[in-house]
Specification:
By secondary structure, the protein is an alpha+beta fold. 14% of the residues lie in helices and 35% in strands. β49 and β50 form a beta hairpin.
Amino acid sequence: MIGILAAVGAALAPLGQPAPQETTLLDWTFDQPADLQGWTPNGMLADVKVADGCLTGRITDWDPFLFSPTFDIAPSPWQRIEVRMKCTKGGGCEFFWANGEKTQYEGFAPGKETPFEVIGDDQFHTYLIRPFWHAEKKIVRLRFDLMRDEGEFAVDWIRVVDPGAPPLRAEPVWDFADGDAGGWEAAEGIEGMGVRDGALSGRTAQGDVLLLGPALSEPLQGKLYVSLRMKVSAGESGAVRWAVRGENGLQTQAFPLRADGRFHTYNLDLSTQGAWKGTLIALGLQPTDQAGASFAVADMRVAADAMGAPDVAATYAGPMEAISRAGKPTTVGCVLVNHGGERAEQVRAKLGLPGPQRLAPGESADKHVDVEFGVPEAVQWKIIADQPGEFRPSVTIEARGGEALTVEMRPVRVTPALNLPKMGYVPEPRPVKTDYLVGTYYFPGWTSMRSWQCIEEIAPERKPVLGWYDESKPEVVDWQIKWAAEHGISFFMVDWYWSAGGRSLEHWLHQGYLKARWRKYLKFALMWANHNAPNTHSLEDWRNVTQYWIDHYFRLPEYLQIGGRPAVFIWAPANVRRDLGGSENAAKAYALSQEMAKAAGLRGVYFVAMSSHESDAGVRELVSEGYEGATTYHWFETVASKAKDWRHFPFALVAQHSRANWEQHDAMIAGRMLYIPTVDTGWASQPWHRNNATVVSGRTPELFEQICRDAKAFVDARGRKIVALGPCNEWGEGSYVEPCAESGFDMYDVVRRVFCRPGDWPPDVAPIDVGLGPYDYPPVQKKTAWEFNTEGDAEGWGPMMGMGQFGVSGGAMHCVTTSRDPAFTSPVLQVPANRFRKVLIRMKIDKAEPGDQSQLFWETATAGISEAASTHSVLIADNQYHDYLLDVGSSDRWRGTIRGFRFDPCSMEGAKVEVDAVRLMGE
């Protein structure tokens, strides 16, 4: 039986042509008793021997591997490693390769490996691994990393085979209408592949499969897309794979499928992929990740622009408001995306209501919109449900020339109206009683509507009850305080940013929380997110940051104390010792903080490490430096190794393994530090990372409650009372429990149900119940020129990072840079790139390093910010206005629809910057 394909599988001949001649370059058969044929095990394998024609052994620890003997072969892209083996437990394996250069890993190095999955049924399978190691001059040794789970294995043989290069194709364009497979090969896991009805068709025998195209020699300059038209019967994701000259490995870009058995267009923008460059030598396709699915590919090509007729899909359909009350208007809607390269004009969206619900006065069920390629377009309806309950509207979408598609929306949950009187401000919190100290992380990253835009477009179900809020407003923070206090959450661990004196993202804390009316009901602590650039920590800087803590936070009655001392959570202890020259010097810095705190009348500082406590040696180091507590922001990455696909696995797996993970960590720490268990709040980072997202799927209040109850049992068993929840509002990463449209107050209600004493709990009051809100940032008018002539109006622009004293006055947008990497961010745009070729920025700056440059980045509908999509201009630092004319149109990345800018005015701290105008211009 042939097993799972690791990379591309067997290099079969193009359909209808004879196979090229194969050559076996290396062959280890293990057919002589007691002869390992030069293979040597490491210390995490036991009972390794050769018997009965197999190399056998037992896995005893977390990193087992075998070294091959040395050899010398000239690599080519088409060579493959083959291994026939069986094992009692399945999991991930890897083959590393060495080129003879010395490294700290005995000649091996990260990035020179090919992973694959093995089946744990104790039956022999043959695995075909295609390393694409062609960037090396020679290959001299292999390292075979086995599964990490304890179990037994038997290897029948290992080979390295060279099948010869497949035929070279002139250009990467295929149309299968003429019945020709165009050099595409049936790889492992494909059954019955052939050209039928004008499409390259087949069926998957397993989930990890691939079609492999012919050899190519295609320069990728200016060619940003892989475009294909395909239908599949089942599956969640497909993937394009490719190799380029001079780079090892077969690269992968996954994409979500529309697995409804109809042909759809997929335009994959690979311009932000670092390995999409140089000369393309191989192209492959995994049509689906579902075993037993049928597929048909009508055409495929590498192209400069998105291709194909309009192809509109609803990426979301459901409630657009977090709270829907009976008898009051609420909003439902859908988000449409056009996957075809051509503009979809006058797309019709018609709302269907299933029962007694009705359209709000003046609302029409029929709406028409134009949808550009890749640009999400929201269609919304105001409706009224007079009775509480749950119902599912539908929307029928019809584009010209396409089939009508009816989509059932997510359920709309209508709850009874609370009939409360209107109030002038947030009602005072009614804290519930709890015996536990429950905290949650807070990410203060919502600085403008620009921050929220990708959430609104890609995951509108995450819309907070507070709307797309301005978190610098005390009234917004008072709602957050009220809900936390009324659900048993005692403190926020606020992400805090300091780099060599430069501070950022402190608006929630300084402008919101510290001015909030009800702040006495919620404590806070700093979680110093010190993922700073190298050489930004120093003993003097440590003195400065400690003094800032003492002067601004530690004496506040709301600051969290553990053991009678203000608690500071440190993201990366390793970065501190990196910059200070080791653990011994880091310990001096922590000791300095203790001295300064005591000199200020405090009892000291309680340091909690957010990382570096994953081993006994790491714990010893932290204790010696002065840490007394240990916790994490997330821990779900640990369970990813237990999943078949570490990029996509269920939240149920996190719930299943949470307590065992805490037990293991606590046992290792063995009382040397206080271990605070972290209740993960999820991860699904599509708004930030699009097709490159890691997705932990299936998060529900029920599974979250299971983890909370396990955390309560864990601390109860140890006589402790402190628990950390994962982030409450990492909306872009997909870690959130703050009340939102997806689940209302359900996640907060879980916390209250698990950690609070029963009693007369207050109702879950939303702003609409007392006539307050909304708190959304105002909508930003889409422009192509900004003059900053209105006092205080940044016209949608804002500080992204490394900026202080940001504002608009005197006809200019201004700031003082607080780091060496300051950046403005623009409002969301919808600008056709072909209408504009230049960007004019009128700016003055008072100082800059010699030769320093400003840099303008842009993002398109399908590609985010990247170095390749940017242009520079040399600065004139004389504190006078100058016009900087940036030639964006000369870049092959300036195409499609421009969605936004990031502007880095300089790379110097302490510079005063004023921007008078930004204009997009033609030639």
